[in-house]
Amino acid sequence: MKRFLKFYTLALLAVGFSSCLSDENIEDQEYGMINLEANRIIEIPSATATTALPLEDKNVTINLVHVHLAANQTAQEDIQVTLVPAPEKVTAASTTTAPLTLFPSNLYTLPQGNVVTIPKGSRDGYLPIVVNAKNLDPAKTYALAYTIGNIDKSGYIVSGNYGQILAKVGVKNQWDGVYSSVAGYVQRYSAPGVPTVGDALNGSMAGNSDVTLTTIDANTVEITGLKWYGNTSNIAGIDNLRATINPATNEVTMTALGNASLRNIASAVNKYDPATKTFTLNFEWNPTSNKREITGLVLTYKRSR
Q: Residue 85 and residue 144: Cα distance in Å, rounded?
């Protein structure tokens, strides 16, 4: 029985220390196994962080990097943690489908340099960065990477697992996001005034997959993901479909970089309702040959992308 109780006690201790033991330096016994609660570990809790700034002409301060003191007690003194830039990590994280741009230093300022202060009585400190989104390219995702460098006080240990971060910054206008396909009808024509009959692509767009509206500039979004009737495949022939919104009237002008003939249907509604975050759109393309048109398209905001 004593042997069983000893085993059970050890098991409970193992569970209690599981979060601490996940750190590589503890696994390597660099910290030792005596009085674990006395260890004061400096870490960056999240390996990635993403911030989307509203596309407007004003300086905004954001907390780019969060530094945390993992300890039994809050900081007993101000702790200054110096972060080391790691641009190679931005390059390594950039991919063809999700490219990253190393944030040019002339587009932001760091009021505290690369130093994060964890104030006395707290466990957390932040690296503030000041950015004016008007200077950023909405087509790009900017990024900075850091690792923990120097700690100005003794008795603190840099985490072996949580010592670096990739911080991304982008810009979005007010219409950017993922939208539900609430209503709409797509129709193809074999000639002007001659709608196709028995065409499986013609029909309602209600309930089709969500579409994505991506910021192009302060008043323009690119629409991707529109599908034919039945949600079968993406609508072709209108690459780089764009909606430009007049913020004063909420009127929308439809264009497509991949098809210069795409235009609003005359006298039909093309408007954004800010109260419901809903677009109502009517547009056509190839009007003098095999016309295609989308009428009564209703897209309602669902979530951020």
A: 7
In tens, the pLDDT along 251-273 reads 999 999 999 999 999 999 999 99
> Which residue in 63, 32, 70 sits closest to 159, CA to CA?
70
Tell me the C-alpha distance between 202 and 217, whole Å.
32
Q: CA geometry: angle at 185 spanning 198 and 206, to 5°?
A: 110
What is the average pLDDT score of the chain?
90
Q: Let me know: does 181 contact 207? Beta carbons within 8 Å.
A: yes
Cα 212 from chain centre:
13
Structure tokens at 278: 């809903």
Burial class (CB in 10 A: 0-12, 13-18, 19+), 184: buried
Q: From CA 231, how far away is CA 223, in angstroms rounded?
A: 16
Q: Which of 303, 302, 299 is nearest to 270 (CA)?
A: 299
Those residues whose C-beta lies under 8 Å from the C-beta of residue 186, and which sit 6 or more positions away, are: 201, 202, 203, 205, 228, 229, 235, 292, 293, 294
Residues 168/49, Cβ–Cβ less than 8 Å: yes
Instruction: For the chain, list the domains and their CATH numbers.
Output: 38-172 (2.60.40.1740), 177-303 (2.40.128.440)
Distance of CA 226 to the CA centre of its chain: 21
**Model confidence, pTM:** 0.72
| Averaged pLDDT, 147-155 | 96
Report d(CA 187, CA 145) in Å as an integer.
49
